[in-house]
Design brief:
By secondary structure, the protein is an alpha+beta fold. The protein folds into two domains: about 5-175, 3-Layer(aba) Sandwich (Creatine Amidinohydrolase, Chain A, domain 1), CATH 3.40.350.10; about 175-430, Creatine Amidinohydrolase. About 35% of the residues lie in helices and about 20% in strands.
């Protein structure tokens, strides 16, 4: 578990990045409606969680950076006996302070008053505030029938002189470099993922349903990580479905002689493992499958060798493409008229952390591929090849911690050598 002192250090770094005479507001979010009166399970806004460690709805963080003064205020739900009977207990003010390291913890119905006192020129509790940072994630619901755009409209109408700035890029830049505590959370998530893969492999066989394998994985990780769940919806694809990058519904039957591609991960403290492995359902690769598998594995190992401070994800991608352009024709794996982009159509890497695809600047921004890697960053290493005409695809994905001089393969204990895999599967069948 991340210590309260680390959350305090993160907020201090963030305040140092803010403009003078500015404030920042971040929300934990609330449940979203699924259908009728049923809600989706609550998922805390990751930027809020990164700065507080608080994992409950209806919470807010207010940071203030004015000349000679820096303030932090955390707002959480008050005790409500009726609600706790229905929905479970919430943190007390004292528990929220101990968890987050914020000393000024107030009940959430006082948030609007404190914000008005901060922004109103007639009150100016902390001096004139020129700018207000807000996490401009359009999907963030902050109260019943209220999204972030609604909040912004209210602020712009009430305080026309206040400049609205986006907090998202500042926080996500901090999130790129992982602390020792964060790496430990990721290692724990990866350990659970390994246990889950082993559980799926124990029942892997032709004739099994894909969802049986996915269920075995899910059950095992929840046993090991205290029911913290998956990093993302498990991709459990077999046969021709292995050529679909994000195969959505694992309902088919594992075919004789086919491959099973698993793209999955457990999470721990919201930190996400992201692992892919490809297995022969019958216990042994065909010669054609083995040739493709060996090339993907070569690309996977090359990426880990090249990943180091100063290198970009774009350069790693270009290296994989260059390898494929050279080796696919030489190994007879490209049909006449086929190009590399026909069989390899995704990036080799992305950032990993509190989100499976840790964002940078904005959720959809692709400039992360041009950022020089630094020690402390964690990225995926996931080359693949997908042959629709042959009815199979292969992906091998590891999680890499960038170190001072290279990379550390956090997922190294999950077997990926073809001979290792065949031996493992054949041993389990005896």
């Amino acid at each position: 578990m991340i210590k309260a002192s680390e959350y305090s250090e993160r907020r201090e770094k963030l305040i140092n990045m803010m403009e003078p005479q500015s404030a920042m507001v971040l929300f934990s979010g609330v449940e979203k409606c699924k259908s009728a009166d049923e809600d989706y399970p609550f998922e805390v806004a990751r930027n809020f969680y990164y700065l507080t460690g608080i994992d409950q709805p209806d919470s807010m963080l207010l940071l203030i950076n004015v000349e000679g003064e820096r303030k932090e205020f955390l707002f959480v739900s008050p005790f409500d006996e009726r609600k706790e009977k229905w929905y479970g207990r919430r943190l007390t003010l004292e528990e929220a302070e101990a968890r987050s390291g914020v000393h000024n913890v107030l009940v959430n119905f006082s948030f609007q008053g404190k914000l008005d006192a901060t922004l109103s020129p007639s009150i100016s509790q902390f001096g004139d505030i020129a700018s207000l940072y807000v996490d401009l994630d359009r999907e963030l619901k902050i109260a019943d029938d209220t999204y972030i755009d609604d909040f912004l409209s209210t602020i712009k109408s009430a305080y026309q002189s206040v400049n609205i700035l986006n907090a998202y890029p500042l926080v996500t830049q901090l999130r790129l470099r992982k602390s020792v505590g964060e790496i430990q959370e990721l290692r724990s998530a990866i350990k659970s993922t390994h246990l889950g893969i082993n559980a799926a492999l124990k029942i892997l066989a032709p004739g099994r349903k894909e969802y049986e394998l996915a269920d075995a994985f899910r059950h095992a990780i929840n046993d090991s990580n205290g029911y913290q769940g998956e990093s993302f919806n498990t991709i459990m694809a077999s046969g021709v479905h292995t050529t679909c990058l994000h195969y959505p519904k694992p309902v088919d039957t594992v075919p004789e002689g086919g491959l099973v591609l698993m793209d999955l991960g457990a999470r721990n403290g919201y930190y996400c493992a992201d692992v892919s492995r490809t297995y022969p359902a019958s216990g042994k690769f065909t010669p054609e499958q083995r040739a493709a598998y060996d090339l993907v594995l070569e690309a996977n190992k090359m990426t880990a060798d090249l990943a180091k401070p100063g290198v970009t994800i774009e350069e790693l991608q270009n290296a994989v493409i260059a390898l494929y352009e050279r080796e696919l024709p030489r190994r007879g794996l490209l049909a006449e008229g086929e190009k590399v982009e026909d069989v390899y159509f995704h990036s080799v890497s992305h950032f990993i952390g509190l989100d499976t695809h840790d964002p940078y600047l904005s959720p959809s921004d692709r400039s992360y591929r041009k950022i020089p890697l630094e020690a402390g960053m964690v990225i995926s290493d996931e080359p693949g090849l997908y042959f629709s005409r042959l009815g199979f695809g292969i992906r091998i994905e590891d999680d890499l911690l960038i170190t001072e001089h290279g990379s550390d393969i956090l997922t190294r204990d999950i077997p990926k050598e073809a001979d290792q895999i065949e031996h493992l599967l054949q041993t389990q069948k005896k």
